[in-house]
C-alpha cells in the first residue's frame, strides 16, 4: 500500500486531529475543508463539537479567516506528533517498504543464517525494521503463539493448528562419539539401544534437539544416563569429543569435529527439520503486514540454500 493510502487510513482513525492541523495550516475554514476533502459545514460542525467535547476554545475567527487560540497553539505540536506517530504505525501495517518484522530464531541460526537473510533482504528494502530475539525452541514457539513475534526460524516444527510451517532444510541426526569409542569404527548405522548403558551429553530441556532426542529415546524405550546438559550444540559436541559421554546431534556440515566420529542412526525419526513458522491464516486477527509477508517469502526462497551450508 502506498503512502497516500496510509495517510487515508490515518485520517479515518483520527479525523478531528487532522481537522485541527488543517485549520492551523490554512487559517481558513473553506480552504481547510478543501484540503480535507469534506464540505465546509461539516468541518465547522466538527470543530464546534470538538471544542464542546473538550471544553476548550481551540479556534477563533479573525475576520474572514480563523486562527488557533493560545490553547490551540499549545496543543498543536502534540497533535502533529500524534499524527506523525500514527502515520508511522499505519505504515508498519500497510507498507512493505517501511514496516516492521518481529523475528525469533534459534541460537545456532544467529551466527550466519539470520545475518545472511537480513543482509540480502535489506539491500532491497533498507527501511524495513526488525525486532530480533534469539532464544531456544520452546521459548520461540511460545513467543510466536502469544503474538510477540511474526515469524520463527526454528526446529523442530510444531504440530499446532494455529501455526503454519515451511520446511527449509532437513538435517540427519547422528550419534556423536569420541574417536576412540568402541563403535567409532562400526562403519554402519547404529541404534541408540547399542549405547543404552552409557552416559549421554544432552542439551537442556526446551531446546529443539533435546526434544527430538527425547522422542527417539522414548521410542527406543531408553532412559539416558545424563552426564551433562549443555546450553548449545557446539558445547555438547565438544564434550562428546572429550569423552564425557555420547550425544545425539545434527550432522556437522563441515564434517565431524576433530576428536569425534558421527554415526548414522537407524532409529526412526532421526532427523531435524528446520523451517520458518508463522501464525496460520485466520488466527491472530487474520492479517499479515506486507513487510512480514515479503520477508517470509524471502526466507522461503533463500533459506533452503543458506541453511545446509551454515548450520550445525
Automatic annotation (TrEMBL):
> Which molecular function GO terms apply here?
DNA binding; DNA-binding transcription factor activity
Pfam family of the protein (one): LysR_substrate
Question: What is the top-level taxon of the source organism?
Answer: Bacteria
Q: Locate the HTH lysR-type domain: which residues?
A: 12-69
InterPro entries under this entry? LysR_HTH_N (IPR000847), LysR_subst-bd (IPR005119), WH-like_DNA-bd_sf (IPR036388), WH_DNA-bd_sf (IPR036390)
Q: Name the UniProt key words of this record, in alphabetical order.
A: DNA-binding, Transcription, Transcription regulation
The residues the entry assigns to the signal sequence are none
Q: Where are the transmembrane segments?
A: none
GO (cellular component) term, any one: protein-DNA complex
Family assignment from sequence similarity:
Belongs to the LysR transcriptional regulatory family.
Please state what the protein is called: DNA-binding transcriptional regulator, LysR family
From which organism does this entry originate? Nocardiopsis flavescens
